[in-house]
Structure formats: C-alpha cells, structure tokens
Amino acid sequence: MTLSANWGVIATWRMAWEGVSEAANLLQANKAAGEAAIHAVKCVEDYPFYKSVGFGGLPNERGEVELDAAFMDGTSLAIGAVAGVRNIANPILVAQALSRERFNSFMVGGGAEEWAQAQGFERKEMLTERARNHYLKRKRETLDRGLSPYTGHDTVGVITLDTQQNLCVGTSTSGLFMKRPGRVGDSPVSGSGFYADSQIGAATATGLGEDLMKGCISYEIVSRMGRGMSPQQAAESAVYDLETRLISRFGRAGDLSVVCMNARGEYGVATTIDNFSFSVATPSQPAAVFLTARDGKHTLIRPADSAWLEAYQQRITAEVIQ
User: Fold this and answer.
1) Which SUPFAM superfamilies does the record cross-reference, listed alphabetically (predicted)?
2) What superfamily would CATH give domain 8-317?
3) How far, in Å, are 61, 174, 176, 177, 263 from residue 181 at the CA level?
4) What residues are labeled active site?
C-alpha cells in the first residue's frame, strides 16, 4: 500500500500531551494507528498525577478506584471495552485485547478482572496515597455534610491516523469522582465516548457521561463528517445541538467536550466550557496544547502559553492539603 504524507493524533486535555508527542513520533515512523493510540493512552494511565485516569485516578464513594477503557479500530470496526475494573494497571491494553475477540468484547467488573488476570495482564494497586487524600478531603467536605460530592470527570480520548490511512481511537478514565460503585459513563460505550471509521473519521468525548450518552455524540460527529461536514463543523453542530436538546427537554446540560479527526487528518474541537484543553500533532503542527473558549455556538481555539502550562504542572503536582 502506498503511504500517505498525512498522519495525525489528537487527544482530550493537556494530560495527553506527552503521549501525543510520542505517538506523533511513532506515526512519523510509519507505525500503525493502533500502536500509537495505545501508547498515548498508556502514557496517561501510568502517570500518577493525572487524577482522572489510571494509576492515581480518583475513587468512587467507597474509596475504590474503578476504571473504564475502550479501543476501536476504524478499519475493521473492531471494538473492545472494559468498565468498572479494579487494580488493572492498564485497562486500555485489556480493551485492545478484547477488540480481537469475536464475542465477549465488552466486559465489566469482576468478570473482566478475572479474564484480564488469566490473560496475564499486570495487576496493580491503583489507589495512590495522593488520590486517597483527595478522597478523604472531598468526603469530609461533601458526603459527611450531606452534600453532593460529584466533580471531576475528565477522560483521556486519543485519535490516531496513520500513513496507511487507518484511524483508531482509545479512551481511559476513572470516571466521575465519588461516583456510586458500579457507575459507568460514556467513555467505554461505543458511539458515545468514542467512534472511528477509517473511511470517514473518528471522534471522542469527555465531560458528563450521563449527558454525552443521551446524544451518542461521537457517532453523531462521525456521521456528520460522513455527510460532508468539516471536522470543526461536525463537532460544533453536534455538541451545541445536543446541548440545546438537553436544556429544552431535560432542563439542564452538563459539560460536553469533543475532539475529532477526519480521514485526511483535519481536526475539529467543540466544547460548552471555557479553557477545555486538547493536545494535537500533525505533519504541519508539532505536538502542542491548545485552549478553547466558547463564543455562542462556536469554539474559539488558541495556543496554551508558557504561563498556563507552568501553572497547570504546579496545580496537578501540588500537595493535597487536608
């Protein structure tokens, strides 16, 4: 197959930047989209200061870390996903393995943990002392006072396009901080947290899963790209249409943010919040972090400056004051 000059990688949040940078190097070296996507997600899962994904992820209301992850190959449409798994070092690797299975490709809880262990995937205590301190502080401030504890629901979602024009997407999250045990959001759900079709494009979402699932937002974005919209048009129209429907029918809408990329390596971003960050690299764009601002039904994009990046690093590594 003739290789294309086009490749690309885009991901939700600043926390993906290191993984996006390394994935870009892999894609430039003509490595497969699946390998690059898994590598980028795994970088986030392994870093203990990213408190919404993997090792160091924030726990549920019982103080237990439950993890969700998914992988999709946009060429074969193969999907693998896990939800509510505990003490699995890299849920994204289990999701990728499940995508190779003809049956049982979406597994949850104890059954998924048993299968992962039987397949030799690394087990690890995923609750760090830092995450436990966050939990104890939030518990005192909310649950112990009869208040709602819910905050924090940042999923890492990574889309990769390789030089053979294959698209893949991977997601990973510890889900809503202080969630009820067993709660699952959009991240491992095909069509909501992610979707990829190498003939069209791919999308992935982050925000309040309960609301993102109401619009099957990732599939909707890919569908709109397939009908001729640019990635930016598809992302903005899908996000703001869903927000409008949620407010008119449900009375409110939570945070909704998406990134997407088409089969030509063009990307789009849309969000209902200010200062949503994303990481991206293409042949014409070295790996960088961008910030967003909402302007009506449009999303404005600007590069993150050094002051913001330094403040971010200080914030995520700051001591948790009890």
Assistant:
1) N-terminal nucleophile aminohydrolases (Ntn hydrolases)
2) (Glycosyl)asparaginase (3.60.20.30)
3) 7, 12, 10, 11, 38
4) 155
